[in-house]
Amino acid sequence: MNFKIIATDENSRARVTQFETSHGIIETPVFMPVGTQATVKTLTPDELSEIGFKIILANTYHLYLQPGADVIEKAGGIHKFMNWNDSVLTDSGGFQVLSLKELRKISNEGVQFKSFIDGSTHFFSPEVVVETQEKIGSDIIIHLDICGTYQSDWKETDRELDITLQWAKRSLVAKKRKDQIMLGVVQGGFYKDLRKKAAEEISSMGFPGFTLGGLSIGEERALTEEFVDYTVPLLPGDKPRYLMGVGDPLSILEYIKMGVDMFDCVLPTRIARNKSLFTKHGVVKITKNIYKEDFTPIEDNCDCYTCRNFTKAYLHHLFKAKERLAGRLATIHNLFFLQKLILNIRQSIKSGTFKEFLRDFKNIYSQINNK
Amino acid sequence: MNFKIIATDENSRARVTQFETSHGIIETPVFMPVGTQATVKTLTPDELSEIGFKIILANTYHLYLQPGADVIEKAGGIHKFMNWNDSVLTDSGGFQVLSLKELRKISNEGVQFKSFIDGSTHFFSPEVVVETQEKIGSDIIIHLDICGTYQSDWKETDRELDITLQWAKRSLVAKKRKDQIMLGVVQGGFYKDLRKKAAEEISSMGFPGFTLGGLSIGEERALTEEFVDYTVPLLPGDKPRYLMGVGDPLSILEYIKMGVDMFDCVLPTRIARNKSLFTKHGVVKITKNIYKEDFTPIEDNCDCYTCRNFTKAYLHHLFKAKERLAGRLATIHNLFFLQKLILNIRQSIKSGTFKEFLRDFKNIYSQINNK
Fold first, then answer.
1. Among this protein's residues, is A139 annotated catalytic?
2. pLDDT digit string (tens) for B81-94?
3. Structure confidence at residue A371 (pLDDT)
């Protein structure tokens, strides 16, 4: 995958890297918008490209159920299906399936679960999950793993880690397509010895990159940070590291500092549809009365399509009137904000000013929360 | 308003005309997409322009309640508020207010009604309605009228017509802005003598154009046609004629034949959000199973953004998955279809082939309905 380190920060593990997929070059740090069902909610692929994204995420579990991996394969893969010409990463679907609690059963073989759509029974083995992602045709795929809870005890976590490690090996054997990159999942819950064991064993299997699994799943923020900070140095430096489910600007900055390269999260798009907009001073709720007659853009110096064309008063009105254009315009702004933040972070690492950038951003970004 | 007749059909009253508003030249026949709340649902103004629209409709009643005419006035008018640089027509709000049945009270003075949003009491007089539209700043405005029901008896209809005629006069007196065109409303229900009286009196007041009021409000299609056909020749030939609430292709063709110049309707955008797409063979429901693996565009020769970029299978999936992009892509296609139809109609009138165009379109368009 031609992984290269472009620049490193001297005060932290922050770095700029790049690697290649079948659909282009990805520069990191990178934030990937979530297109769960082969669409980033409300937007066209053109709009994502215009904002500058080169990679998006889609969810294997959702696509497996609707429209089905066979349909996407017949379409010529997810890129053709949704008309997106840059890279796609799919997750394993394990997280969604395991969240079903009453509706799933785990064995060494895999996970049996029921469809949330029609109650039908399905089975995800490591092999099925690889095959499904090969049909979907994403550029980066992830093997099936078991994601515990933050209350799981050591013994349970160790047993689940052993299954995950077996599944990782089976997935490497099952993988046929040469044009896809498969990431290894580092599990081990909130036990450092198990994280160490996971990192060592997964690293030894030859995966070209890694995701930090089982973090940011409901535990205290301090605990997530402790385990990200602990786990990253256990992984080889010459491969990308991906932390799933993180999308707020301050967290992204923090984890980049710890050496994480890749992020995805529904947060920016979900809060957008819920009337909340990123600004350099923090998140603002656009339906507040103070915006009713505010005929300026969300941010004065923002170059996003929404800010170039519409005012806060108009967005306020669209949300009040429950108009669908509201969520769309807000989504564009929030994704643009994050993408610009990522570009600025890369630039600051390259120019040796990441520390100052982090400090300044934090100072300004907390202003609204302090009001 | 510089009204000009560009071409007339020799077999019918169909014609191509043009007139000028403060925001540009409108060529007719014209279909105006409905942007009730200062947004054509799901689309940006850019997308409407790309399809080729030069005029849209917004609803005075909705805008009066949310965000309020004062907000739009402070924004610099509806064009600036919603960032639409071409023409806007607003209705009088009378139709919506009168539909409230239990919540409204009519007198010679005007209509008292309760807000559907918060139950507060409001009063629409002819003067308030003119003032509201002057604040909104639309290019074409319509005076308050009383729209009866198709069951109203002669006496009631005559009484309501008299009030409408008084309101028309009061509206002309109330009108201050010189940059807006006010259309006169021809009422008279389903009584030919009253339609004649209405047409004569309204015509004598000097309005620069007319809307055929109180038609297509739930009565049998044949009755609408009879009254459109009867009323149009009663109006001066050198002014535009507008029929509200008609948006299906066959009806538009029929009424153009009768001499109607302007149309608006929520139909193309509403059925789009409800999975129904215009094709030259009729309306298709894209969620039907036959489209699940149909990797061709909605229409092979359609140049709309949706057909240029996406397949039936993808639209099928988006609707099945309840994704918001679905309604947006379907809306683009349906509006493009209607706009192209209108352009073809104009062309056929100009080239003297309207009769053949009408015949051919009808033959092909009914194919799906006959299956």
1. no
2. 999 999 999 999 88
3. 43
How many domains is chain B partitioned into structurally? 2
Same domain, A290 and A175: no
A58 and A184 assigned to the same domain: yes
| In the predicted structure, residue B370 carries a pLDDT above the cut 60 | no
The mean pLDDT value for A212-221 works out to: 89
Report ipTM for this prediction.
0.97
Q: Are residues B70 and B105 in the same domain?
A: yes
Give me the CATH number covering residue A42.
3.20.20.105
Q: For residue A102, give every residue at least 6 positions away whose Cβ sits within 8 Å of its Cβ, in sequence order, or none.
A: none
By Cβ distance, the residue of A66, A316, A324 closest to B321 is A66
Could A314 and B43 be called an inter-chain contact, meaning their C-beta atoms sit closer than 8 Å?
no
Whether A317 and A213 map to the same domain: the answer is no
DSSP string, A20-79: EETTEEEEESEEEEB-TTSS-TT--HHHHHHHT--EEEE-HHHHHHTT-HHHHHHHTSHH
Query: Minimal Cα–Cα distance from B298 to chain A, Å?
Result: 14
Range of the domain at B299: 272-370
Residues A19 and A166 in one domain: yes
Q: Could you tell me if residue A339 is left (phi over 0), alpha (psi between -120 and 50 degrees) or otherwise beta?
A: alpha
Q: Which of A215, A240, A265 is the last residue of a domain?
A: A265
Residue A91 annotated among the catalytic residues of the structure: yes
Element housing B98 (H / E) = helix B94-98
Q: For residue B293, give the chain A residue with the closest CA.
A: A71
Residue A243 and residue A315 in one domain: no
Cα of A325 to nearest chain B Cα, Å: 5
Give the nearest chain A residue to B67 (CA atoms).
A317
pLDDT greater at residue A362 or residue B148: A362
Co-location of A354 and A279 in the same domain: yes
Tell me: do B204 and B311 sit in the same domain: no
**Whose CA is closest to A166, among A196, A187, A135?**
A187
Per residue in A94-116, pLDDT (tens digit) is 888 888 777 788 999 999 998 88
Which domain-ending residue is among A229, A245, A265? A265
pLDDT at B371 over 70: no
User: What pLDDT is recorded for position A369?
Assistant: 56
Q: Using CA coordinates, name the residue in chain B closest to A68.
A: B317
| Contact at CB, A41 and B295, closer than 8 angstroms | no
CA angle B208, B211, B217 (to 5 degrees): 175
Q: What is the pLDDT of residues B278-314, one digit of tens each?
A: 999 999 999 999 999 999 999 999 999 999 999 999 9
3-state secondary structure at position B37: coil
Catalytic residue among B86, B139, B261, B264: B264
